[in-house]
Design goal:
single chain; alpha/beta; Rossmann fold; 2 domains; 7-stranded parallel β-sheet; 6-stranded parallel β-sheet; 17 helices; 16% strand; binds uridine-diphosphate-N-acetylglucosamine
Length: 380
């Protein structure tokens, strides 16, 4: 039922949450799609402030055209318990104030579970976008966030069919699940034309050598399991240096990784190799780098998906992936952190050009539309 005010129909508020960098490209297309149902839904954007550096936040809002958040909780960093608790404390009064018909969360970061918990304890329906992904590795903080958020959600949108299967295995009723496709790919397709050129990136960051298509590898690393443990970090960095002897490596460095590289005394080694260290880059720069790379080496979930969508080979520096469609159908190979395995996979790309794949089902730029249509169908 639509709330009426006199003779006027009043749109109902829907609180949407973002907290960390990978959330921004997921919420952007959903927000754009809300424009088509303005008469029904009034979206209210909460940024928890989990990521707060300009390079981790503002640039993304600008480049993706996300409106200024209606509320910024400003929680910042902390242990998992501190960060999660602070988000919950900050979020509860927002719900008391706004009284939304539902809360929408995306992804698997601490802000996702924190806001989800607050919502359901207030008996406000919870909508989870990117539900059902499982690495089956509970040492990953994101895995705990995914399992718990899915258990308490009323409506679960999935990006690939394996996620639907995972949810059913965990006892989630089929009626609550909707296979809608990948909103991250909606963002990629909407912004591909605007991606920064390699020449512009070389100039902007005053790179020691100019970038040209397929003449470099793109590296990102930020998973606690890879960067918090000095031995693993060292092993990975030595392997990257070995790779850079064959192919220069561009490495936009996440703040936590930057701290660990300095602590481990690895920055000099990297600076003397053919590895270009960059600060965290914006969305359009990252798209430009991804599109131009010969190969991507990463532990990020998002980059595994984006490289599949762009047809660029991806070597995943983790023991598992929660996004198996990128391996079964896409360009992804999961190799772990063993130097020999990484080098074998890298040499395969150098010799054969690497894995080519196909675009997974519903990674077609229309996921946000399917999501908003379903929300309207269920709640109005
Ligand atoms: C978080 C998400 C992870 C996601 C990643 C993307 C969780 C559990 N993890 O990990 O799923 O892939 O974001 O980036 O939610 N820092 C800054 N500036 C910032 C943000 C962080 O300097 O704007 C530093 C702080 O030292 C902080 C550390 O990075 O302690 C880690 O940040 P945090 O948000 O806790 O987790 P991420 O590793 O970014």
């Amino acid at each position: 039922m639509t709330i009426t005010h006199g003779d006027e129909f009043m749109p109902k508020p829907l609180v949407c949450v973002v907290g960390a960098r990978p959330n921004f490209m997921k919420i952007a297309p959903i927000f754009r799609q809300f424009n088509s149902v303005k008469h029904l839904i009034s979206p209210y954007l909460v940024h928890t402030g989990q990521h707060y550096d300009q390079s981790m936040k503002d640039t993304f809002f600008q480049q993706l055209g996300i409106p200024e958040p209606d509320r910024d909780l400003g929680v910042g960093s902390g242990t998992h318990a501190v960060q999660t608790a602070n988000v919950m404390l900050g979020f509860e009064p927002v719900l008391d104030d706004i009284k939304p018909f539902a809360v929408l969360v995306v992804g698997d970061v601490n802000s996702t579970i924190a806001c989800g918990l607050v919502a359901v304890k207030k008996q406000i329906p919870l909508i989870h976008v990117e539900a059902g992904l499982r690495s089956y590795d509970k040492t990953m903080p994101e895995e705990i966030n995914r399992i718990l958020t899915d258990q308490i959600s009323d409506l679960l949108f999935t990006t690939e069919r394996s996620a639907v299967h995972n949810l059913k295995q965990e006892g989630i009723q089929e009626e609550r699940i909707c296979f809608a496709g990948n909103v991250m790919i909606d963002s990629l397709l909407a912004n591909c034309q605007k991606a920064e050129s390699l020449a512009a990136i070389s100039e902007k960051y005053q790179l020691r050598f100019g970038l040209e298509e397929r003449t470099f590898a793109l590296l990102t690393l930020h998973r606690p399991s890879n960067v918090d443990d000095i031995d693993t970090l060292q092993r990975l960095i030595y392997t990257v240096i070995r790779i850079s002897e064959d192919l220069p490596v561009i490495f936009p460095v996440h703040p936590r990784t930057q701290q660990k590289i300095v602590q481990a005394g690895l920055n000099n080694l990297l600076e003397n190799a053919k590895v270009l260290l960059l600060p965290p880059v914006g969305y359009l720069e990252m798209l430009g780098l991804l599109r131009g790379a010969k190969v991507v080496l990463t532990d990020s979930g998002g980059l595994q998906e984006e490289s599949t969508a762009l047809g660029v080979p991806c070597i995943t520096l983790r023991e598992n992936t929660e996004r198996p469609v990128t391996v079964d159908e896409g360009t992804n190979t999961v190799v772990g952190t063993d130097p020999e395995k990484i080098l074998t996979s890298f040499m395969d790309v150098m010799v054969t050009g690497g894995k080519s794949g196909r675009i997974p089902e519903y990674w077609d730029g229309q996921a946000a539309q399917r999501i908003v249509d379903e929300i309207v169908r269920r709640y109005f």
